[in-house]
Write a structure and sequence with these properties.
Structural class: alpha/beta
Radius of gyration: 18 Å
Strand order of the largest sheet: 3-2-1-4-5-6-7
Shape: globular
Helix content: 40-55%
Strand content: 5-15%
Order of helices and strands: EHEHEHEHHEHEHHE
Bound molecules: nicotinamide-adenine-dinucleotide, ligand 0WE
Distance between the termini: 44 Å
Oligomer: single chain
């Protein structure tokens, strides 16, 4: 029996079979979890329904995290189909494209800052708040996805770095809030992976090559690497872990200097 047998999990952030959320959904299903999958808009509906069929679920619905009503509706839908929720995975990040080009000060503006923080950081707190009634008293787990740019400067990551810093702080505050009710909250800081969110980012290929040369494991990580860690962190095997950011990056963040 898998180590997530009997767990019910909502995965937010599926866009394609390259999505980190897809690696997470597959690992969680393999370990026995029952899944609900959401999609941002109707353009993604067909694709996500097909991914659901592959993972034995027809519980799919729209969830645009920019809309409060959408978040409420999603939890209502879950409440109708399930007696509660054990796992919520937040694998969502967005800033306007112009925010991820050029220098930090050249790129940043009030609107870009606001959208990046709303979609990439506030949405995690909003989902946690809306899911709280469904998750209370079940040894539940919340998980989000971060990146090194939260704690170190990375060329072109710009305002997303600030949003990820806020997201990582939210992990700690929400952990303190829901811990007494038995729910754990963690983040995975993943190394760079070629997903839709990485498409067209100038310098991304160079960053992949850099990690391959410099990281202790001399490789880039895959969505399966992230998925397996996600499944562990959301399982009772990780019953003593909360408020943490776990790096799944082939060790890249631990290196201070390289001769490569
Ligand atoms: P992806 O493009 O496959 O996933 C991003 C998801 O965010 C998409 O499914 C998209 O629909 C969703 N999204 C954006 N705005 C939304 C909204 N308003 N409402 C609902 N959903 C919305 O890319 P990914 O790389 O799998 O990204 C998933 C997470 O992983 C993000 O938080 C990203 O910052 C993080 N991450 C990615 C990498 C990487 O290199 N790919 C590394 C570390 C962390
Ligand atoms: O968090 C991310 C991706 C975030 C992202 C990507 C896009 C592209 C399309 C947010 N918003 C948008 N908006 C778009 O219009 N990552 C961790 C992947 C990533 O993105 C980078 C990286 C890495 C790594 C951008 C610059 C530098 C490095």
């Amino acid at each position: 029996m898998g180590f997530l047998a009997g767990k019910k999990a909502l995965i937010v952030g599926l866009a394609s079979t390259r999505s980190i959320a897809w690696g997470i959904a597959q690992a969680m299903r393999r370990e026995g979890a029952e899944l609900a999958l959401s999609y941002q808009n109707d353009k993604l509906q067909g694709r996500v329904e097909k991914m659901g069929a592959e993972l034995d679920t027809d519980l799919t619905f729209e969830l645009d995290v920019a809309a409060d009503a959408n978040i409420e509706q999603a939890m209502a839908t879950l409440g109708e189909r399930w007696d509660g929720l054990d796992i919520l995975v937040h694998s969502v990040g967005f800033a306007p494209r112009d925010q991820l080009e050029g220098g930090f000060l050249d790129a940043i503006n009030r609107k870009g800052f606001q959208i990046a923080h709303d979609i990439s950081a506030y949405s995690f707190a909003a989902l946690a708040k809306a899911a709280r009634p469904l998750m209370a008293g079940r040894n539940g787990a919340l998980l989000t996805l971060s990146y090194l740019g939260a704690v170190k400067s990375v060329p072109h990551y710009n305002v997303m770095g600030l949003a990820k810093a806020s997201l990582e702080s939210a992990v700690r505050f929400i952990a303190a809030d829901v811990g007494p009710g038995g729910t754990r909250v963690n983040g995975i800081s993943a190394g760079p992976i070629k997903t839709l969110a990485a498409a067209g980012i100038s310098g991304f290929r160079t960053m992949l090559h850099h990690v391959e040369k410099v990281s202790p494991l001399r490789k880039n990580v895959s969505i399966d690497d992230v998925g397996n860690t996600a499944a562990f962190l959301c399982s009772d095997l990780a019953a003593g872990i909360t408020g943490e950011i776990v790096y799944v990056d082939a060790g890249f963040n631990t290196v201070g200097m390289s001769l490569e």
